[in-house]
Amino acid sequence: NAGVTQTPKFRVLKTGQSMTLLCAQDMNHEYMYWYRQDPGMGLRLIHYSVGEGTTAKGEVPDGYNVSRLKKQNFLLGLESAAPSQTSVYFCASSPGTATSQPQHFGDGTRLSIL
Amino acid sequence: AQKVTQAQTEISVVEKEDVTLDCVYETRDTTYYLFWYKQPPSGELVFLIRRNSFDEQNEISGRYSWNFQKSTSSFNFTITASQVVDSAVYFCALSEAILTGGGNKLTFGTGTQLKVEL
Asked: Cβ A42–B104 below 8 Å, yes or no?
């Protein structure tokens, strides 16, 4: 019963390095989301996808890119990591478009940029 | 723009005490959904409850209860007879539709850290 799986769980990067965070869901959900969680700020939406091959910007998209080549996977990329991107990243998925649908979250990826 | 306010940053109680976590929201939508999520020390986000804007009945699930009052734009969460395992950060969230292509966006409050001590 995996649900939403995020890889890796922890990572330390140096400024300027690049990396990709992987999110995989096995619930056949159409919609997937990437959030970041910072102290005192709750979770903020970075990018989201409404289906395979689609992506869209959330409220804090700068410095990130995403891809949804397969329905079950949603990748978040940092091309040139900056200390301001130190955060905990959460992936989520939901089955439909309605605002009634709860989002199911992964366990998070803790990312530190030195 | 939608907004969720959790004014209580941190609450400490002794085990078996009752505790209420406050959530106040702002939205222009007439139909909306509210959620509570729990984030235990292990870090994952656990969905607790969903409430739609048309249903103001209180809901009880074991030791948990939720009080939704549309007139005051509040959706408060009460834990009765708290236990150490209830120690976590609790987030209130408001759902809104994302107009570009569908999907819904959750607007989160900043969370309330609950510490339950023996």
From this structure: no
Strand ranges in chain A using DSSP code E only, listed in sequence order: 4-7, 10-13, 19-25, 31-37, 43-49, 56-57, 65-67, 73-78, 87-94, 104-105, 109-113
Model confidence over B14-50: pLDDT tens digits? 999 999 999 999 998 888 889 999 999 988 899 998 8
Model confidence over B84-114: pLDDT tens digits? 999 999 999 998 776 566 667 789 999 999 9
Given B47, B105, B109, which is nearest A102 (Cβ)? B47
Instruction: Please tell me if residue A39 touches chain B, with a CB cutoff of 8 Å.
Output: no
Q: Which two tokens stand for residue B83?
A: 């236990």
CB B22, CB B74: distance < 8 Å: yes
Q: What are the residues whose beta carbons fall under 8 Å from the beta carbon of A42, sequence distance 6 or more?
A: B4, B91, B108, B109, B110, B111
Phi, psi dihedrals of residue B22, rounded to the nearest 5°: -95, 145
Tokens matching residue B15: 């085990």
